[in-house]
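Researcher: Re-running this chain for the archive, since the previous output was lost when a drive failed. Same request as before.
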Amino acid sequence: MSSSVSLPTVHVLYENPSWLPPLVAGLEAEGFPVRLVEVVEGHLDPDAPPPEGIWLNRMSPSSHTRGHGNSVELTRETLAWLESWGRRVINGSGAFELEMSKLRQHLALRRHGIEAPRTVLGVGPQSLVELARTFTGPFITKHNRGGKGLGIARFDSADELAARLATGDFDLGPDGKVILQAYIEAPAPYITRVEIVGGRFLFAMRSATTSGFELCPSDACQVRAPVPDVCPADGGASKFSLSPLTADDPLVASYLRLCEAEGIEVAGIEFIEDREGRRYTYDINGTTNYSGVLGARIGIDGMREVARYLRREVVPALTLGLVA
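Model: Regenerated structure tokens:
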């Protein structure tokens, strides 16, 4: 597309300003006007048409941890409003509902034949203990609406979980829904995250789990880490390193099919490999972030690639009057 063509405004729905600079820089580098739309509080008039342009959903399931307890619900209504007016939304309602529920992610993985750890959902201490007794080995708990690795803890038995629940300091998450998932023992302390933009494989990276499961790749998230994590696959220099996984891997192909079918245009999908080499997928991140340190090392600016996708494919479709 010629640089002389006027590009539409990209309206960014967000609640965490710390994640915005790389995205804004990438959009502006591709020539897009950018309008930031904070979704923390506000109002909607369903009869008022939304501004024209491209709407990019950057709402995170962890928004409540930053004092934005209403952001998820307000985003749900905002997306419905935008879509009712035919606006082009990147990671719209369908993708958003998947990101807000790890149970729904598991159902989507099952629909597309992608192997995942055994996953169940419970509400209330008694239900959680009853579910825990159905596991024959170690399991982990996590918030159904998670993000940032919140609520992840390993338990070796139902009695251990019951004792923890009895202390009263077990975090049930923002809505009381807790996932129990079979623990996958990996031969090396890392997980793999596959980055997808616009139906294309971007790259895959390994994230070290030696210091826990708060694995947000954003550079802004790393600033708050008291001790830098080390990824063994990266020579001990960083929490994140490039994975040898390539675009022609069958698992990547499965991820691409899932994203196309579920309406997910930007995603980071995570899996873990056990000692027998079986790969279990367990998380789909729609509000994906990228490590600037890793990106500089491998020559890929993730947010710039998002902007290039908008310019390469979304803008021409808008010009032709297509809203997919």
